[in-house]
Amino acid sequence: MTESRYLRIIAAFLYVLAFCCSTASAQDLNTTARFSIESIQSAMASTKLSKVTVKNDPIYNDARMYEGYPLVLVLKTLAVHLQPTAWIRFSCRDGYAPEIPIKKVLDGSAFLAMRSLHKTAEHGWEPMWKDGKQTSPGPAYLVWTLPDEKPEEFPWPYQIVSIEVFSRQRESIMAPREAGEIASKGFGIFAARCLKCHSLNGYGGEMGPELLDPCSVTQYWTSEFLQAYIRKPQSIRAKARMPSNEDLSDGDLRSVLAYLGYLVNHRKNSASDHCPVP
Questions:
Q1: Could you give the C-alpha distances from 4 to 13, 84, 189, in angstroms and in order?
Q2: Is 181 found in the same domain as 161?
């Protein structure tokens, strides 16, 4: 056996071993499987890029064409077990971290764009404006080919730096299982709308401030003020980056505050309590 053939056999064995180990860990959904964009690019290096056209890109408010990969193909290449009860978390450069059920991507409508094909694209991406500065959606941008996407249900995160696959069980400590119907409803609203930007006890997005540790936001802001701010942040704070939630009813807002109030006694640092009470 020649040395080159021997090395090829060893390399193939190591690849299969890595594939099997990756699959085993991914199938154990209590353990998070996390992949950086660099590792995804490396894993997909031998896969031909696909083209996709989206009808109404929310960044550019127009149709756009991209090259990349169907997200379901990326997950299969990474040996992720596509368990319907699993969730995917996209961590972005600015701290935005939306989560979606993995079942939403199984139809192939989610596409991980790796570069733009627009005529004004430079260095693989078309410039965009954010916070008064010119930047780009790279290194990766999640787009959808569905005809009527709802951003709350089908987020379009850009500047993605990593993707995680996990079991929803890992945040079960945040679910108010014994707090009643109102707080439970608030948990559902918070998880869908707020968790992508705000964290609770360190879990969640990092674009907005932590809301529970060490002091709960309900301990230093009144309920009336919080409801007004959640509904329309720009009416309280000029140039607030937080989006409005004017579609939420008074009952919805009260349920969110009931959920946050429930969590006051579940704070990470509640033992040494020096937090104000309004």
A1: 14, 43, 58
A2: no
Tokens 């009643």 belong to: 180
Find the domain containing 200 and state its range: 175-266
My answer on whether 240 and 257 are in the same domain is yes
Question: Residue 23: pLDDT band by 50, 70, 90 thresholds?
Answer: very low
Question: What are residue 25's phi and psi, to 5 degrees?
Answer: -70, -35
- In DSSP notation, 137-175 reads STT-EEEE--TT--TTTS----SEEEEEEEEGGGGGGGS
**Nearest residue to 154 (alpha-carbon basis) of 106, 96, 110:** 110
The whole-number pLDDT of residue 31 equals 52
Cβ atoms of 67 and 113 closer than 8 Å: yes
State if pTM tops 0.85. no
What CATH number did the domain enclosing 92 receive? 3.90.420.10
112 pLDDT more than 60: yes
Domains in the chain, number: 2
